[in-house]
Amino acid sequence: MSEFSVIGKSIAMVDAAGKTTGAGKYADDFSLPGMLIGKILHSPYPHAVIKSIDTSRARALEGVAAVVTGEDAPNQYGILPVGHDETALAVGKVRYVGDNVACVAAVTEEIANQALELIEVEYEPLPAYFNPEESMKAERDLIHENRPNNIEKDYHHVFRDPEKGFADADYIAEARYIANEVTHAAMEPHCTLAAFEIDPHTGKQGRLTVWSSTQVPYYLQHKLSLVLELPMSQIRVIKPLVGGGFGGKSEIIPLEIIAAVTARAAKAPVKITYTREEVFWVHRGRPRTIIDLKTGVKNDGRITSVACKVIQDGGAYCSYGIVTILYSGALLGALYDIPNIRYDGFRVLTNKPACGAMRGHGTVNVRFAFESQMDEIAAEIGVDSAVMRQANLLKPPTVTVNGLRVLSYGLPECIDQVLTRSQWSERKGKLARGRGLGMACSHYVSGAANSIIRSDMPHSTVNIKIDRDGGVVVYTGASEIGQGSDTMTAQVVAEVLGCSLARVKVIAADTDLTPIDLGSYSSRVTFMAGNAALRAAEDVKKNIVSAAAKRMNCTAEEVVVCDDRVWKRGADSSPIMEPVSVAASGHVDGQILRGSVLQTRKQEVVTDHMSFEEAVVAAIDVHGGLTGTGSYAPPAEARGGKHKGGGVGPSPAYSYSAQVAEVSVDEETGVVTVHKIWAAHDCGRALNPVAVEGQVIGSVWMGLGQALQEEMVWKDGLLMNAGLLEYRSPSSVESPEIECIIVESIDPEGPFGAKEAGEGSLAATIPAISNAIYDAVGIRLREAPFTPERVLAALRAKRGAKKIEMTEGVDPTQPTSFREHGGSLWYRGKGPDRHANDPSRQGSAAGGGQ
Amino acid sequence: MKKELIELRVNGRTHELAVHPNSLLLDVLRGELNLTGSKKGCDDSSCGACTVQVDGVPMLACTMLAASYQNCDITTVEGISDGGGLGALQKAYGDFGGSQCGYCTPGFMMTVRGLLMRSPDPSDEEIREALSSNLCRCTGYSQMYEAIRAVIKAEQSSPKPELAGARE
User: Fold this and answer.
1) Could you tell me the domains of chain B?
2) What is the DSSP string of A170-237?
3) What is the pLDDT of residues A466-520, one digit of tens each?
4) In a domain, A807, yes or no
């Protein structure tokens, strides 16, 4: 029998019924009396000065309540304190096609759309930058005046002695890898509803309430306060159900601020819901990334040194960029034992939508390069690629050269599991032509050990209230976004209190009701909010136990609380407490309201067991109320090194993943089919195994999309595939079987030993597929995604066939630079020549600015 | 454009509504009838989050004119619960993790329900094909198959059909 009664059981999410019946409410499902619909006017230019905006005709349209522009809320904000470079609406100039220029609030969507067409904006186009390597050379027409060379930030880290490491190596591999841009494409388009109340004392606009599809309600509250110049206490952010985030709702999205600014001007509630096209334009996804990677190894496969240069095409605003570029370097560590590391990271601004955080933030593209290169080296030095990985394992507990503390480390078992399940040793390299196996590993943080806003406050706090009805109400700021945050919280509390799950009600992510929590990002919720919930439950439990001990005439240590029952240890380990039949007694659980009189009488009788409710009432009678609170802040030892940028990467615990992919490649069409992926994931302890499997499978599947078909295709700053059909995230017919194997390393600091499950598996999938393609047909693809065009080009290159004439730098085995046109072969020539009529090129002698 | 009066039969009830001739069924369901279970995910019928059943056939409400479906039986996700409780399919999606963020789930409910009504014992291939009309971004679909197979298995072993309220 399990040592737990709630933990470790596969259960449906506590909010599952609302989702399967349609009763659950997402932001766009709310409406208020007198609510107006907001629509945003976006820039048609990638880079232009706004010379004038005339909104008079739009304002005059019947049904329009307000038109706002940048001047109405010019305060700058950004998710990072060092990256406050956004305004609600553009002030002075626009920086990407889709930048926000004005917003209309009208009684219907149709009228709002009509009004947008009546706004006259005069632009003066500026040269625009689309290629980060070109953008880095810019000296004039900078995207942000305070960012020379359009470099948002660059970092140069050296740990130990990389040069000596390379000198000691028997073999050195060096290559360039490119991963193209992908986006979250969460099923729910962003939506925000903002409403002001009238203050009864001043008679003016007072408190603001915002319902928003966000992963970070408290950051939203903070940034709204900055822009609106309203105290945080006057702002209430409510997070309803969120239809998927994946990082795309983990920062402040323009519509969230714009809705509030517009509601203030319109003096009425305003709801803005993005169209799917707008969701693509707002983006904040995973940046196109160039990775120049050099790895030195000994003949037995042990790594001696790694040098990595990363350039990220960050788009027009900082967003999470500085954190992304730091994660790319920091998480070179903590997976394998790498004695020497050099890292040069450049986050570059371009005139495209800002990139931000996306599942596996910062690690995914570098992991693709790293795991691919490991496979290349293994083939070169004649070591099995699984053995090569086993030769470089960490020996925990340890601190890596770049300051990451690793305590629990399930990677060796993950590797063993996938090797066994996939019959690796029997089948690797022995499958029929065109079919192959590939493996790769990855890891991820269980929350960042240092918060974005430098402070000593706890990262999570949870409050619990138990009343005479025996109901347990948990207040947590953690944001349920479909990953199971509320269910995890309920499970942890029920387990600690020894009550049934049905008693526990979770109130989450409402800044008026719930204590502060940093939000749902960087896989932090189970570890941090879970620990806070555990501590809150222990806090309240001690009062229940002491009251029960008094009633049972024993010490607190002798009291056992389990499965809704309370008893004195040793008296009777399973007192007979049949569920009371309502019909027979007229009494149901949860009706001890008259309480004290009856309880007092009962108390005279010394008992050795009682119900959970009786214990609760006894505790309330003693303490006058029953509440508990708990919070979590990562320990100082887990907060990383002191070097510049050393705050990003450290985590109290890391998850580990190993995967084997089986693919076949059609050499005629270039189509890659993934047959199966075995994915082992070390999540510390699976609090709810079905939910862990869902997270792991979902991560692997999302990695599969990035590996094979997802790619944002750009032309002169215009997104060519801004729709779900064109973006092509995998449908059921393109999705293979994914076998999830849960590995439990029981982390010493995680709640019940649990750690990250929702992101870490994604990064291994892309290189596992790439390595399997190599095993199948002998081509090494160094540019993702592995589309039929790229596979065919690589097959031709391998045969030594004449190169197909394509746009510059398209060889997927030797990529040199970004191409402008994604993975399509049929574009010829360069944009500026072909598209003389492009608005961005008119009146701009400098052409593309390159 | 003037509104016109139409009658829509939704979840067994007839509603008299004034709508524009170009009003989309999804907007009428969500805006006029407050049936917000059907979702808008893409605006152009590529994601399936708005799937409803029209005379039993799964269709995409985001690209259907409301006025064109006056003499049809329209079923939305709100109309499939089993006597106020969860239907077998709804329960299974919860138990097996077929729903994570849940935004696509109503659409999948209607698609799968349509599939099982026309083909009570579908092959794996049929299920896969049917699901391909809907996109999910969380689950990778795997756990949905488990849920659907569990429903089919329960259906076959139970004496009377009780499929997700599919008794009509």
Assistant:
1) 4-79 (3.10.20.30), 88-157 (1.10.150.120)
2) SEEEEEEEEE--B----SSPPEEEEEEEEPTTT-SEEEEEEEE--S-HHHHHHHHHHHHT--GGGEEE
3) 999 899 999 999 999 999 999 999 999 999 999 999 999 999 999 999 999 999 9
4) no
Contact assessment for residue B10 and residue B79, using Cβ atoms and an 8 Å cutoff: yes
Rounded Cα–Cα distance for residues B17 and A230 (Å): 42
Residue A587 pLDDT > 70: no
Helices (H), chain B: 25-27, 88-95, 105-118, 124-131, 142-157
B111 touches chain A (CB under 8 A): no
Find the mean pLDDT for residues A798-824.
65
CB-CB: which of A276, A733, A738 is closest to B42? A276
Burial group, residue A809, by CB count within 10 angstroms (0-12, 13-18, 19+): middle
Look at residue A296 and give its three-state secondary structure.
Answer: strand
Q: Which of A753, A786, A783, A787 is nearest to A769 (CA)?
A: A786
Distance CA A347, CA A289 (A): 10
Supply the range of the domain harboring residue A82.
26-126+189-242+249-282
Confidence of residue A607 (pLDDT cuts 50, 70, 90): confident
Does residue B63 sit at the A interface (CB-CB below 8 Å)? no
Say if residue A476 is in the same domain as residue A605: yes
Partner residue opposite A724 with nearest CB, options B47, B89, B128: B47
Nearest to A701 among B76, B103, B140 (CB): B140
Residue B119, chain A, CB below 8 Å: the answer is no
Nearest CB neighbour to A698, from listed B46, B95, B140? B140
Same domain for A534 and A388, yes or no, is: no
Measured between beta carbons, the chain A residues lying within 8 angstroms of B126 are none
Closest-CA distance, A735 to chain B, in angstroms, reads 7
Q: Is residue A352 part of a domain?
A: yes
- What six digits make up the tokens of A628? 């508990």
Contact A458, A450 (CB under 8 A): no
Q: pLDDT for A130-181, tens place per residue?
A: 999 999 999 999 999 999 999 999 999 999 999 999 999 999 999 999 999 9
User: Is residue B70 within 8 Å of B101, Cβ to Cβ?
Assistant: no
Model's pTM, two decimal places?
0.94
The Cα-based distances of A599 to A46, A106, A466, A541, A602 in angstroms read: 73, 60, 17, 20, 5
The answer to whether the CB atoms of B86 and A21 lie below 8 A apart is yes
Distance from CA of B16 to the nearest CA of A (A): 21
Residue A462, SS3 per DSSP: strand
Cα angle: A510, vertex A511, A517; to 5 degrees: 95
- List the single best residue of A10, A14, A21 to mutate versus B (max B Cβ within 10 A): A21
Closest CA to A676 of A508, A439, A459: A439
- Contact status, residue B31 vs residue A110, Cβ threshold 8 Å: no
Among residues A218, A224, A216, which one has the least CA distance to residue A263?
A224
Residue A449: the pLDDT is: 96
E strand or H helix at A566: strand A565-568
- The verdict on a CB contact (< 8 Å) between A693 and B93 is no
- Between chains, do A737 and B142 touch, taking CB under 8 Å as contact? yes
Is there a single domain that holds both residue A99 and residue A237?
yes
* A204-221 pLDDT tens trace: 999 999 999 999 999 999
> Residue A440: enclosing H or E segment and its boundaries?
strand A435-445
* B102 contacts A701? CB cut-off 8 A: no
Structural domains of chain A, count: 3
Task: Let me know whether A88 and A171 are in one domain.
Answer: no
| Structure-token match 């047959």, residue found | A675
Q: What is the mean pLDDT of residues A743-771?
A: 98
Among A274-288, A570-584, A780-794, the range scoring the smallest mean pLDDT is: A570-584
